[in-house]
Amino acid sequence: MEILVLGGSVFLSQAVAEEAVRRGHTVTCANRGTSGSVPDGARAVHWDRTEAVPDELATTAYDAVVDVARMPSWVRTGVATWPDAHWVFVSTVNVYADDATPGGGPGTLPLRDPQPDDVDLATDPEAYGPMKVACEQLVRDGAASWTVVRPGLIVGPGDPTGRFTYWPARLAEGGEALAGGRPEDPMQVIDVRDLAGWLVACAESRTAGDFDGVGEVLPLGSLLAQVAAGVDSEATLTWVPQEVLADQGVEPWMGPESLPLWLPRPEYDGLGTHDPAPSVAAGLALRPVAETARDTLAWLRATPGAAVSGMSRAKEAAVLAAWHSLQE
To answer: Of 154, 179, 166, whose CA–CA distance to 306 is shortest?
Structure first.
């Protein structure tokens, strides 16, 4: 197959290009060339999507296009240029207007109102989900066939956000580690390699429909136990209630002093609990979290400057000290 990956140099799109090459496809990656290199075996073509489509791309009849864009104008141009290709559009679970209902997915949760115009996310980060809703609709309306995949938290080697990476790094250090909320709180992650492999398979089979690209829903305590097993950790987890975390100024989910994977409950009970069963039935295969954690730590140690988000050890120690003082 001739596959066009719009991107191909960072995390998921790079993993998609690498997997497509591994499967023997002819792969072209179109990007600005500023974020990294494309995988060996793929062809790189320079394209800034705010500009006209280069002739060498526009005149090629691709069998499939994989797109991770968030700007509606970019998707509008792409679909108009290659309407006969099978489009695999990578959206996000942030398209859903309901973050509280567990076990939801396509057809069971309402979507946000679409934002059909490009919005600078630096000034309005809340526009991310609505723009993705608009992008999805452009693909459905303009492509001959399409797969829309809405990932949750994508993790693994190469993660530029460093959110999940916090945990393999922290637990590998050992000692007492701060954990947020309750060990039974549900959470899910998906390895970038599993998601990429499935996206390529969807392109190959022209799989049709909307899916959530998510992993198995696990109690957070079990998920972190798998991380610990993957990095051979003997760390002990101290679970601190969310009310205490909030009092101590701990941010949820992501940020420089956040506790990754912790979400306030019950308002976010649904964000990390989407139903993976329809996607698994459509071919998604999931590896154990322990394997993801092992490989993420190996990548982190081999990659100077790799991102690790989350709180400092000083902040963690202060929160743990405050919690222990409340127990005295």
So the answer is: 166
**Structure token digits, residue 258:** 């956040």
Statement to judge: residues 197 and 253 lie in one domain: no
Percent of the chain's residues with pLDDT above 70: 100
Same domain, 247 and 120: no
Q: Please give the single-letter amino acid code of residue 138.
A: L
Cβ-based neighbour number of residue 54 at 10 Å = 13
Tell me, what's the pLDDT at 154? 98
- Domain-embedded: residue 103: yes
70: CATH: 3.40.50.720
Please tell me whether residues 45 and 89 are part of one structural domain.
yes
Helices (H), the chain: 11-22, 55-58, 72-81, 128-142, 166-173, 192-205, 220-230, 242-247, 277-281, 289-302, 313-327
Work out the pLDDT band at 81, boundaries 50, 70, 90: very high
